[in-house]
Write a structure and sequence with these properties.
Strand order of the largest sheet: 2-1-8-3
Order of helices and strands: HHHHHHEEEEEEHEEHHHHHH
CATH topology of the largest domain: MetI-like fold
Helix content: 55-70%
Number of strands: 8
Largest sheet: 4 strands, antiparallel
CATH architecture of the largest domain: Orthogonal Bundle
Number of domains: 2
Strand content: 5-15%
Distance between the termini: 68 Å
Length: 404
């Protein structure tokens, strides 16, 4: 029989049991610490929600959801323009950022180059995306101001309260006149003229306020006034001066964008693009490599494998990243404030791509900063609406993710 090793001879059961008891005690303290931190976070969030609900519930009514900001009567103020502006802004942001972000993630993960220089470029892009995810959003606002609002002054200098730049489509220009009945408005096409006013002397092609063609009559005050009401609606006085006006379609487009809805949407796209790329990359990495190998073994190309195997398997993770990105986009205030400014006195949502808009975070910031106590209550009510809208958007996105 062999001798017992020295280590076993010196082993003391009491020391081992004491060490095990110490480890168990540390595990219990660590679990308690994690539980305390988690409960504290939930308690703080719960207190914030209760405080906001206590302050803002009294202001939640149908008028609050259908009215606009009223600086003279806070009791009648509402946030309808900001709700419409935020929803349209997020839709445009999703349309521009999600396809680009997912496509970039597919390239970085599924089409990694073999060439040495392309590998360096690939690594540089990957490094910059990781760094851009931590850049403060106000920096993106300054970038959007230079790139989208002013476009480095390449298309003309933007003046205060003046639309300038190069118009491409979606705008119609007219001279506006008031008919003899002092109720109807008549629009005369601008044509090739660029004069700010037009003095009417002879009949011209014209339109009513609905832009329906009409037969324009010019009445000389030295002659008897027409008596037919239908004729009066299509008649202007000889010598009347009409001012040039512009009517924009929803797809109106110009360069530079100016402080517009499109500029704000593209700026927010820059903010959330790194989040979309990184989340999509993680989703693609989670797909087992055996699926790719099986697809390649059946003769599929790399693109066919990505399109029919990898991307469908990673789609739930991609949708999760999209949910997180859009949740950040709808709550961003700094980049939108830099691009659009802090004007909240807008009576409706944006009417075209180059129109300005009000978003909920900007409205909440303006109301919370107002010294009038009632506006602070309105800010709390607006926060409730923002959180509710965010929950609805996330629930819909989670439903779509579950159906994929």
């Amino acid at each position: 029989m062999s001798e017992i090793p020295k280590a076993l001879q010196d082993f003391k059961p009491t020391e081992a049991s004491a060490r095990t008891e110490l480890q168990k005690r540390r595990d219990r303290w660590f679990r308690f610490l994690c539980l305390a931190v988690g409960c504290s976070s939930v308690a703080i969030l719960f207190l914030l929600l209760v405080s906001i609900a206590y302050q803002g519930t009294s202001s939640l009514n149908s008028n609050f959801l259908s009215a606009s900001h009223d600086p003279e009567n806070p009791a009648q103020a509402g946030m309808y323009p900001s709700i419409v502006g935020s929803v349209i802004l997020c839709v445009l942001c999703a349309i521009t950022s999600l396809p680009i972000g997912v496509a970039a993630a597919i390239y970085l993960e599924e089409f990694q180059p073999r060439n040495r220089w392309l590998k360096r470029f690939h690594g540089l892009v990957q490094l910059n995306i990781a760094n851009l995810a931590g850049v403060p959003s106000v920096v993106y606002g300054l970038l959007g101001l230079t790139l989208f609002v002013y476009m480095f002054q390449l298309f003309g200098k933007l003046e205060q309260n003046q639309v300038s730049g190069v118009d491409f489509w979606g705008v119609q220009r007219y001279y506006q006149f008031v008919a003899v009945d002092d109720l109807s408005v008549i629009m005369v096409p601008l044509g090739e003229s660029r004069e700010p006013t037009l003095k009417i002397q002879t009949p011209r092609p014209a339109f009513d306020t609905l832009l329906v063609p009409i037969d324009l009559h010019v009445w000389d005050p030295a002659t008897p006034r027409p008596s037919d009401p239908e004729v009066l609606r299509r008649t202007v006085r000889k010598g009347d001066v009409g001012a040039a006006v512009e009517i924009y379609s929803w797809y109106y487009f110009r360069l530079p964008f100016g402080p517009s809805l499109l500029a704000a949407a593209l700026t927010l796209s820059l903010v959330i693009l790194p989040i979309v790329v990184i989340a999509s990359q993680e989703a693609l990495r989670a797909v087992p490599s055996s699926l790719r190998e099986a697809s390649a073994g059946m003769g599929a190309t790399r693109w066919q494998t990505t399109q029919q195997v990898t991307l469908p398997a990673a789609l739930p993770g991609v949708m999760t990243g999209a949910i997180l990105a859009m949740g950040r986009a709808i709550g961003e205030a700094a980049p939108v404030f830099v691009v659009l400014g802090g004007n909240i006195a807008k009576r409706s949502g944006p009417e075209h791509l180059m129109d300005s808009c009000v978003t909920m975070p900007i409205l909440i910031f303006a109301w919370a900063d107002n010294p009038v106590e009632q506006y602070r209550q309105l800010a709390a009510a607006a926060i409730i609406v923002l959180v509710a809208l965010l929950l609805v958007m996330n629930s819909f996105a989670i439903y779509l993710r579950g159906r994929t």
